[in-house]
Write a structure and sequence with these properties.
Order of helices and strands of chain A: EHEHEHEHEHEEEHEHHHHH
CATH architecture of the largest domain in chain A: 3-Layer(aba) Sandwich
Number of helices of chain A: 11
Largest sheet of chain A: 6 strands, parallel
Number of strands of chain A: 9
Strand order of the largest sheet of chain A: 3-2-1-4-5-6
CATH topology of the largest domain in chain A: Rossmann fold
Number of domains of chain A: 2
Oligomer: homodimer
CATH class of the largest domain in chain A: Alpha Beta
Strand content of chain A: 5-15%
Shape of chain A: elongated
Helix content of chain A: 40-55%
CATH superfamily of the largest domain in chain A: NAD(P)-binding Rossmann-like Domain
Distance between the termini of chain A: 35 Å
């Protein structure tokens, strides 16, 4: 299936990310349907013109009419949905997702999925520290990375289709990697950083410091405003990788602490120079 | 001395912060002179209209003509400057600074300073991750905090004068605290966060991850682009506080790691909820 504008797309799970996909796809001329158990999310999205049709439960005809389905659900809910409703999918339908962990999701979904439809996983590396369809904003895709996560079960056509989706949504950079590589990277880049932000807020009652803070503390703790249901699930689904990353990070912090305690100025400066040199690689594309 | 526009201001040290002060004060109609050992900094600032006069060495007449002097130097350099040049200061001159640590600077300067001039310390909690007068930008003061750091030696007039300076520079919030309170807070809010950013970059060679990163990692490591000469000095001048903060933070990270390793979902969620609740206090004033 090509990303031609006559395609009918169904979004399952209409939160911040599902809503932002809907917004982008509607603007591009696609017919967008959505399912969410929350009637308020559906009625908001209909009223705001984010979707053409909306349902608070699974309507077999609506599922069957979709050429493409985008799952923006918590991992456990995603698996259950497939088990219960895959019988309604049209043969040849293309499925993708936005899930933040992959190893424990992708193989399982592909194992239980019917042979005449295909699931190709993806992770849009974009988000906001606010939640819900009302905060949908497809501008978060600009300058952001989109990762396609195929397995041996995926066809070249599906991989290409998924890359095209990232492109039309407006992502700046499309990459590909295996589920295992994905989870290793995300453990470090996203989960460890969220863990650090939480620890900065919980290690001491720092509320009285608000009037003295500069931007560095604000930047490091922006993501400390965290959806506890979603992130605890993501952390636990990537537990082995994340505990290793935390250990690695703690060991480096301990090293910096020891340089400081010893008064080793040159050792500290060397670490800072290495930090500066590496950080240059992380500026946004084109900036 | 009031902040009336006929005041002559001298800025000693024309880097990012000195240049940003110059820009703001020039715009407000003050006569601004500057001293910096780098001829390029001075000629740039003259050419860009940031200053009215500039010197690459201490000119006694220029120092004597200043009603107010703003020191934007590394702590050690600041002390030496006062020792060598305070004889040129006009009687009644008001001195302030922008130094990022206070306890080891303020008492020392006040101890060696002539009795007929006054030094009132301040810390503008604003900055950029780029350096030098060419990156000067007085918009960094908007929405930012300005901390006046008096001791028992300071007069109420000097404290008021310094608060006024913060106000006319455009800071959103002016606070006051002792040097010890300042260093305790700054250890946590600023130095610990810089240490974390550095550790994230140095704990592993992560350059190949650049194409996969999202905003959270970029935000947490923005300040990993760090001036090693300045920050190693600031870290070492606040060594006891900072090592304590690092220990506190490491202990909290270890606690999160253990909740994760045990699979304690509710424990993780509780930490995340506490994090979210506290983070709400840190939004910028008026936002």
């Amino acid at each position: 299936m090509e990303w031609i504008s006559k395609s009918k797309v169904m979004i399952v799970g209409l939160g911040l990310m599902g809503g932002s996909y809907a917004k982008a796809l509607k603007r591009l001329g696609y017919h967008v349907a959505a399912i969410d158990i929350d009637p308020e999310a559906i009625s908001y999205a209909l009223g705001a013109g984010l979707i053409d049709e909306g349902y608070t439960e699974v309507l077999p005809e609506a599922v069957e009419s979709a050429d493409a389905l985008i799952f923006a659900l918590y991992p456990g809910v995603f698996r259950n949905w497939i088990e219960e409703n895959q019988g309604y999918l049209r043969s040849g339908a293309m499925l993708t997702d936005v899930t933040g962990v992959k190893t424990c999701v992708v193989y399982e979904i592909q194992k239980i999925l019917r042979a005449d439809v295909e699931f190709i996983a993806a992770h849009p590396m974009a988000g906001r520290e606010v939640y819900g369809v009302k905060n949908s904003d497809d501008r978060i895709f600009r300058d952001a990375n989109y990762i396609v996560v195929p397995t041996e079960k995926n066809t070249p056509e599906a991989i290409e289709w998924c890359k095209q989706l990232g492109k039309i949504l407006g992502f700046a950079r499309i990459s590909t990697c295996s589920p295992e590589e994905h989870d290793r990277m995300i453990g470090f880049l996203s989960q460890l950083t969220h863990c650090i932000a939480v620890a900065l807020m919980t290690c001491t009652d720092n509320r009285h410091l608000a009037e003295f803070t500069g931007d560095s503390f604000r930047d490091l703790t922006r993501i400390a405003n965290i959806n506890d249901a979603m992130w605890s699930e993501l952390f636990l689904l990537n537990r082995d990788v994340l505990t290793e990353d935390i250990d690695l990070f703690i060991s480096e912090m301990t090293g910096l602490r020891d340089l400081l305690a010893k008064g080793d100025r040159e050792g500290l400066r060397e670490k800072m120079r290495l930090s500066t040199a590496r950080r240059a690689y992380f500026n946004k594309p084109g900036k």
